[in-house]
Specification:
This protein is an alpha/beta fold and about 210 residues long. It contains eight helices and seven strands, in the order αβαβαβαββααβαβα. The protein is globular, with a radius of gyration of 17 Å. The chain starts with a helix and ends with a helix. Bound molecules: magnesium ion and zinc ion. The site of zinc ion has 5 residues, from loops.
């Protein structure tokens, strides 16, 4: 019985995601769904990416359970940003995105980046109408995450391994992260980055430019 309820929720979500997708297409928007656990650095990577992609007009939707800190950080970079507070829900779904789309000035942006709620599990289950999903994993989360949370790695077109500046101080096997991620998703593009030092950001930004 429970399985049936869940699959109906996902079917309803898929219909609205398709509606969003048509709208994005009509406006020529490239849409990225950015996912990670809390604290991996989604907002920081967004800041670095926006700085690098001068010439491409970016808009951001910030998903958080509560608060507006991340939207305030992004708005300092003078890009359009809309904050969604889910009020408890641990992921964004297509309907939440659909409801705020009227607030996004489509004619002033080329790329829309949706920062999902920090969570390694269900954000990967809910399409919101994006072109690609991208995930971020901090090295401080440990090297066991791909095998424990395979869906997000399977669904993502790119994996950004963040905070590599901390590698000398922690016992984490970054090669295992990469090997396991590739065993789950052989097509995933992997970038080692540090939002703090800026290492690797250029390669990721170039890749994103190419995807569009
Ligand atoms: Mg954030
Ligand atoms: Zn959730």
């Amino acid at each position: 019985m429970k399985v049936k309820v869940v699959s109906r929720i996902l079917e309803a979500n898929e219909r609205i995601a398709e509606e969003n997708r048509r709208l994005f297409k009509r406006h020529g928007l490239f849409v990225v769904n950015l996912m990670s656990a809390p604290g991996a650095g989604k907002t920081s990577i967004l800041e670095r990416t926006i700085e690098r992609l001068k010439g491409i007009r970016i808009g951001v939707i910030e998903g958080d359970i509560a608060g507006t800190d991340d939207a305030e950080r992004i708005s300092r970079l003078n890009v359009p940003v809309v904050q969604i507070n889910t009020g408890g829900a641990c992921h964004l779904d297509a309907n939440m995105i659909n409801e705020v789309l009227p607030e996004m000035p489509f004619n002033e942006i080329d790329v829309l980046i949706i920062e999902n709620v920090g969570n390694l599990v269900c954000p990967a289950e809910f399409n919101v109408g994006e072109d690609i999903k991208v995930m971020l994993l901090s090295v401080t989360e440990g090297h066991d995450k791909p095998l424990k949370y395979p869906l997000m790695f399977r669904e993502s077109k790119a994996l950004l391994i963040n905070k590599i500046d901390l590698l000398p101080y922690i016992d984490v096997d970054i090669n295992k992260i990469k090997k396991d991620a590739l065993s789950i998703n052989p097509a995933i593009s992997i970038f080692e980055v540090s939002c703090k030092t800026g290492e690797g950001i250029e390669g990721w930004a170039q890749w994103l430019r190419g995807q569009r």
